[in-house]
Amino acid sequence: MARILITSAIPYINGIKHLGNLVGSQLPADLFARYNRARGHEVMFICATDEHGTPAELAAAKAGQPVAEYCAEMHEVQKKLAEGFRLSFDHFGRSSSARNHRLTQHFAGRLADNGLIREVSEKMVFSIDDNRFLPDRYIEGTCPNCGYDSARGDQCDNCTKQLDPTDLINPHSTISGSTNLEMRETKHLYLMQRALKEKIADWIDSKTDWPLLTTSIARKWLNDGDGLQDRGITRDLHWGIPVQKGDQPWPGMEGKVFYVWFDAPIGYI
Questions:
Q1: Which residues of the chain have pLDDT under 50?
Q2: Long-range contacts, stretch 73-81, CB < 8 angstroms, 24+ apart
Protein backbone atom coordinates (compact mmCIF):
# COMPACT_ATOMS: atom_id res chain seq x y z
CA MET A 1 0.00 0.00 0.00
CA ALA A 2 1.31 3.42 -0.99
CA ARG A 3 0.60 6.82 0.55
CA ILE A 4 -0.49 9.22 -2.19
CA LEU A 5 -1.02 12.98 -1.95
CA ILE A 6 -3.25 14.43 -4.68
CA THR A 7 -3.97 18.09 -5.31
CA SER A 8 -5.87 19.91 -8.01
CA ALA A 9 -5.53 23.55 -9.01
CA ILE A 10 -6.99 25.65 -6.22
CA PRO A 11 -9.68 27.92 -7.72
CA TYR A 12 -9.65 31.69 -7.36
CA ILE A 13 -12.23 32.90 -4.87
CA ASN A 14 -13.76 35.44 -7.26
CA GLY A 15 -16.80 34.26 -9.17
CA ILE A 16 -18.55 30.95 -9.67
CA LYS A 17 -16.37 28.35 -11.33
CA HIS A 18 -17.51 26.96 -14.68
CA LEU A 19 -17.47 23.43 -16.08
CA GLY A 20 -14.08 24.02 -17.66
CA ASN A 21 -12.56 24.43 -14.19
CA LEU A 22 -14.18 21.19 -13.10
CA VAL A 23 -13.17 19.17 -16.17
CA GLY A 24 -9.71 20.70 -16.50
CA SER A 25 -8.37 20.09 -13.01
CA GLN A 26 -10.73 18.89 -10.29
CA LEU A 27 -12.45 16.01 -12.08
CA PRO A 28 -9.22 14.30 -13.31
CA ALA A 29 -7.76 14.59 -9.81
CA ASP A 30 -10.96 13.16 -8.31
CA LEU A 31 -10.87 10.20 -10.71
CA PHE A 32 -7.24 9.53 -9.81
CA ALA A 33 -8.07 9.70 -6.09
CA ARG A 34 -10.98 7.27 -6.44
CA TYR A 35 -8.88 4.90 -8.56
CA ASN A 36 -6.09 4.75 -5.98
CA ARG A 37 -8.50 4.32 -3.07
CA ALA A 38 -10.07 1.41 -4.94
CA ARG A 39 -6.61 -0.15 -5.27
CA GLY A 40 -6.25 -0.01 -1.49
CA HIS A 41 -3.79 2.90 -1.27
CA GLU A 42 -3.88 5.54 1.46
CA VAL A 43 -4.96 8.72 -0.34
CA MET A 44 -5.06 12.34 0.79
CA PHE A 45 -6.93 14.46 -1.78
CA ILE A 46 -6.86 18.17 -0.96
CA CYS A 47 -8.05 21.41 -2.47
CA ALA A 48 -8.86 24.95 -1.29
CA THR A 49 -10.07 28.34 -2.36
CA ASP A 50 -7.33 30.78 -3.42
CA GLU A 51 -8.36 33.90 -1.51
CA HIS A 52 -5.55 36.45 -1.57
CA GLY A 53 -4.28 39.00 -4.05
CA THR A 54 -5.90 41.65 -6.17
CA PRO A 55 -8.60 39.39 -7.75
CA ALA A 56 -10.23 38.93 -4.34
CA GLU A 57 -10.00 42.61 -3.44
CA LEU A 58 -11.40 43.77 -6.77
CA ALA A 59 -14.24 41.23 -6.70
CA ALA A 60 -15.17 42.20 -3.14
CA ALA A 61 -15.17 45.90 -4.05
CA LYS A 62 -17.43 45.17 -7.03
CA ALA A 63 -19.80 43.21 -4.75
CA GLY A 64 -19.77 46.03 -2.18
CA GLN A 65 -18.55 43.76 0.60
CA PRO A 66 -15.55 43.69 2.95
CA VAL A 67 -13.02 41.35 1.38
CA ALA A 68 -12.94 38.92 4.35
CA GLU A 69 -16.74 38.64 4.30
CA TYR A 70 -16.79 38.14 0.53
CA CYS A 71 -14.15 35.39 0.68
CA ALA A 72 -15.94 33.53 3.47
CA GLU A 73 -19.20 33.64 1.53
CA MET A 74 -17.66 32.52 -1.76
CA HIS A 75 -15.73 29.72 -0.06
CA GLU A 76 -19.02 28.22 1.11
CA VAL A 77 -20.47 28.58 -2.40
CA GLN A 78 -17.52 26.77 -3.97
CA LYS A 79 -17.50 24.13 -1.25
CA LYS A 80 -21.18 23.38 -1.91
CA LEU A 81 -20.53 23.19 -5.64
CA ALA A 82 -17.80 20.61 -5.02
CA GLU A 83 -20.16 18.62 -2.82
CA GLY A 84 -22.87 18.87 -5.47
CA PHE A 85 -20.56 17.32 -8.05
CA ARG A 86 -19.54 14.72 -5.43
CA LEU A 87 -15.85 15.53 -5.60
CA SER A 88 -14.18 13.35 -2.99
CA PHE A 89 -11.89 15.88 -1.33
CA ASP A 90 -10.51 14.74 2.00
CA HIS A 91 -10.00 18.39 2.85
CA PHE A 92 -11.27 21.56 1.14
CA GLY A 93 -9.58 24.45 2.88
CA ARG A 94 -8.85 28.15 2.50
CA SER A 95 -5.59 29.89 1.67
CA SER A 96 -6.63 32.59 4.19
CA SER A 97 -6.78 30.09 7.06
CA ALA A 98 -4.72 30.60 10.21
CA ARG A 99 -2.85 27.40 9.35
CA ASN A 100 -1.74 28.75 5.97
CA HIS A 101 -0.72 32.03 7.63
CA ARG A 102 1.59 30.12 9.98
CA LEU A 103 2.99 27.87 7.24
CA THR A 104 3.68 30.74 4.84
CA GLN A 105 5.44 32.79 7.51
CA HIS A 106 7.40 29.68 8.55
CA PHE A 107 8.56 28.97 4.98
CA ALA A 108 9.54 32.61 4.47
CA GLY A 109 11.62 32.49 7.64
CA ARG A 110 13.41 29.30 6.57
CA LEU A 111 14.14 30.74 3.12
CA ALA A 112 15.57 33.88 4.74
CA ASP A 113 17.71 31.80 7.10
CA ASN A 114 19.13 30.00 4.06
CA GLY A 115 20.03 33.25 2.31
CA LEU A 116 17.37 32.93 -0.37
CA ILE A 117 15.44 36.15 0.30
CA ARG A 118 16.79 39.64 -0.28
CA GLU A 119 15.32 43.04 0.47
CA VAL A 120 15.01 45.41 -2.48
CA SER A 121 14.26 49.12 -2.54
CA GLU A 122 12.44 49.87 -5.76
CA LYS A 123 10.18 52.39 -7.35
CA MET A 124 6.60 51.23 -7.90
CA VAL A 125 3.59 52.80 -9.55
CA PHE A 126 1.50 54.94 -7.20
CA SER A 127 -1.92 56.35 -8.11
CA ILE A 128 -2.31 59.90 -6.86
CA ASP A 129 -6.09 59.84 -7.37
CA ASP A 130 -6.52 56.48 -5.59
CA ASN A 131 -3.86 57.28 -2.96
CA ARG A 132 -2.31 53.83 -3.14
CA PHE A 133 0.27 51.67 -4.86
CA LEU A 134 -1.01 49.69 -7.85
CA PRO A 135 0.35 46.12 -7.82
CA ASP A 136 -0.70 43.27 -10.11
CA ARG A 137 -4.29 43.58 -11.35
CA TYR A 138 -4.74 47.06 -9.94
CA ILE A 139 -2.94 48.32 -13.04
CA GLU A 140 -3.29 47.54 -16.74
CA GLY A 141 -1.58 48.77 -19.88
CA THR A 142 0.08 47.65 -23.10
CA CYS A 143 2.40 44.63 -22.96
CA PRO A 144 5.95 45.57 -23.98
CA ASN A 145 6.48 42.06 -25.35
CA CYS A 146 3.48 41.48 -27.63
CA GLY A 147 1.57 44.78 -27.72
CA TYR A 148 -1.59 43.43 -26.06
CA ASP A 149 -3.41 46.48 -24.69
CA SER A 150 -4.96 44.87 -21.59
CA ALA A 151 -1.90 43.34 -19.96
CA ARG A 152 -1.92 43.26 -16.17
CA GLY A 153 0.75 44.40 -13.78
CA ASP A 154 1.83 40.82 -13.06
CA GLN A 155 1.33 39.01 -16.36
CA CYS A 156 0.17 39.40 -19.94
CA ASP A 157 -2.67 36.97 -20.59
CA ASN A 158 -1.99 37.15 -24.34
CA CYS A 159 1.68 36.06 -24.46
CA THR A 160 1.92 34.78 -20.82
CA LYS A 161 5.05 36.85 -20.11
CA GLN A 162 5.48 37.72 -16.43
CA LEU A 163 5.52 41.47 -15.93
CA ASP A 164 6.00 44.14 -13.32
CA PRO A 165 3.72 47.21 -13.20
CA THR A 166 6.63 49.39 -14.32
CA ASP A 167 6.94 47.35 -17.55
CA LEU A 168 3.53 48.43 -18.87
CA ILE A 169 3.15 51.02 -21.62
CA ASN A 170 0.42 53.66 -21.14
CA PRO A 171 -0.69 52.21 -17.77
CA HIS A 172 -3.90 53.10 -15.94
CA SER A 173 -5.52 52.24 -12.61
CA THR A 174 -8.15 49.51 -12.81
CA ILE A 175 -9.81 51.04 -9.75
CA SER A 176 -10.56 54.47 -11.18
CA GLY A 177 -9.16 54.40 -14.70
CA SER A 178 -6.80 57.20 -13.66
CA THR A 179 -3.57 57.80 -15.55
CA ASN A 180 -2.44 60.28 -12.90
CA LEU A 181 0.37 57.99 -11.78
CA GLU A 182 3.85 58.48 -10.44
CA MET A 183 6.78 56.38 -9.25
CA ARG A 184 7.35 56.14 -5.50
CA GLU A 185 9.97 54.26 -3.53
CA THR A 186 8.97 51.21 -1.49
CA LYS A 187 10.73 48.14 -0.07
CA HIS A 188 9.93 44.53 -0.94
CA LEU A 189 11.28 41.03 -0.45
CA TYR A 190 12.51 38.99 -3.42
CA LEU A 191 12.86 35.22 -3.62
CA MET A 192 16.28 34.48 -5.16
CA GLN A 193 15.12 31.90 -7.67
CA ARG A 194 18.17 32.23 -9.92
CA ALA A 195 20.33 30.86 -7.10
CA LEU A 196 18.16 27.72 -7.09
CA LYS A 197 18.18 27.05 -10.83
CA GLU A 198 20.88 24.37 -10.90
CA LYS A 199 19.46 22.52 -7.89
CA ILE A 200 15.99 22.56 -9.42
CA ALA A 201 17.38 21.36 -12.77
CA ASP A 202 19.17 18.45 -11.05
CA TRP A 203 15.99 17.58 -9.13
CA ILE A 204 13.92 17.57 -12.35
CA ASP A 205 16.54 15.35 -14.07
CA SER A 206 16.32 12.88 -11.18
CA LYS A 207 12.60 12.30 -11.79
CA THR A 208 12.89 9.36 -14.19
CA ASP A 209 9.27 8.34 -13.55
CA TRP A 210 7.77 11.67 -14.69
CA PRO A 211 5.93 11.83 -18.03
CA LEU A 212 8.02 13.44 -20.78
CA LEU A 213 5.58 16.33 -21.15
CA THR A 214 5.81 17.18 -17.44
CA THR A 215 9.61 17.17 -17.54
CA SER A 216 9.76 19.31 -20.69
CA ILE A 217 7.36 21.90 -19.23
CA ALA A 218 9.45 22.13 -16.05
CA ARG A 219 12.66 22.61 -18.08
CA LYS A 220 10.93 25.22 -20.22
CA TRP A 221 10.25 27.34 -17.12
CA LEU A 222 13.94 27.15 -16.23
CA ASN A 223 15.44 27.91 -19.62
CA ASP A 224 13.08 29.62 -22.07
CA GLY A 225 13.07 33.38 -22.55
CA ASP A 226 14.56 35.12 -19.52
CA GLY A 227 14.75 31.84 -17.63
CA LEU A 228 14.18 31.59 -13.90
CA GLN A 229 14.28 35.09 -12.41
CA ASP A 230 14.23 36.45 -8.86
CA ARG A 231 10.65 37.39 -8.03
CA GLY A 232 9.04 39.79 -5.60
CA ILE A 233 7.07 37.95 -2.90
CA THR A 234 5.54 40.89 -1.00
CA ARG A 235 2.92 43.50 -1.88
CA ASP A 236 1.58 46.82 -0.62
CA LEU A 237 -1.92 45.46 0.00
CA HIS A 238 -4.26 45.28 2.99
CA TRP A 239 -5.66 41.78 2.40
CA GLY A 240 -3.27 38.87 2.69
CA ILE A 241 -0.82 37.14 5.00
CA PRO A 242 1.20 39.71 7.00
CA VAL A 243 4.93 39.59 6.29
CA GLN A 244 6.68 37.92 9.22
CA LYS A 245 9.77 35.75 9.63
CA GLY A 246 8.14 32.78 11.29
CA ASP A 247 6.44 34.19 14.38
CA GLN A 248 8.75 37.21 14.51
CA PRO A 249 8.25 40.67 12.97
CA TRP A 250 10.16 41.43 9.76
CA PRO A 251 11.72 44.89 10.23
CA GLY A 252 10.92 47.24 7.36
CA MET A 253 8.04 45.10 6.12
CA GLU A 254 5.35 46.49 8.42
CA GLY A 255 1.96 46.83 6.72
CA LYS A 256 2.88 44.57 3.81
CA VAL A 257 1.55 41.12 2.89
CA PHE A 258 2.99 38.13 1.05
CA TYR A 259 2.25 37.94 -2.66
CA VAL A 260 -0.51 35.47 -3.50
CA TRP A 261 1.80 33.50 -5.82
CA PHE A 262 3.98 32.83 -2.78
CA ASP A 263 1.32 31.79 -0.28
CA ALA A 264 -1.03 29.88 -2.62
CA PRO A 265 1.43 27.06 -3.52
CA ILE A 266 2.05 26.56 0.20
CA GLY A 267 -1.71 26.11 0.51
CA TYR A 268 -1.38 22.89 -1.49
CA ILE A 269 0.66 21.44 1.37
A1: none
A2: 74/13, 74/14, 74/15, 74/49, 75/13, 75/49, 75/51, 77/16, 78/11, 78/13, 78/16, 78/17, 78/49, 79/49, 81/16, 81/17
